[in-house]
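Notes from the 1:1 (GR / supervisor)

We went over the backlog. Supervisor wanted to see one worked example end to end before approving the batch request, so GR pasted a single chain during the call. The sequence is below; no edits were made to it. Supervisor asked that the structure be written out right there so they could see what the output format looks like.
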Amino acid sequence: MEYLGHCAFRLTTPAGVRIVVDPFRNSGNEHRWFLRPSPPVEADVLVITHPHFDHDAVESIPGEPRLIDEAGEIRGDGYVLRTLAGRHARDFAVAIGHKNLIVVLESGGVRICLAADNQAGIGDGLRDKIG
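Structure output shown during the call:
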């Protein structure tokens, strides 16, 4: 697992499948959150947890990775990737309907969960889906 900055990670399965989650960018206004752009790393799968500039820099990832931006499940060579519908924290997410995906990757005998900007309170049903 590689930390790319902010909430961005690249996870590589034992079979070599590269999964990138939440590459970032600066917003279009004068406020600069980041001194450097999200690194342009190669990916086979790209997960965007929600449509905010600090999580959705699709253009920073070269090539044509499979884009995942909705809840669901995909299975590949030695991995299962589930994206679960959560709820974005804070009031500034009203414009996106509080959309936020929780990412659960199982590969090589390890389960990793990335919650992005999900609200702190996770109900029992969602907790059971995470595992």
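Supervisor's comment: The first strand starts at residue 2 and ends at 5.
Batch request approved.
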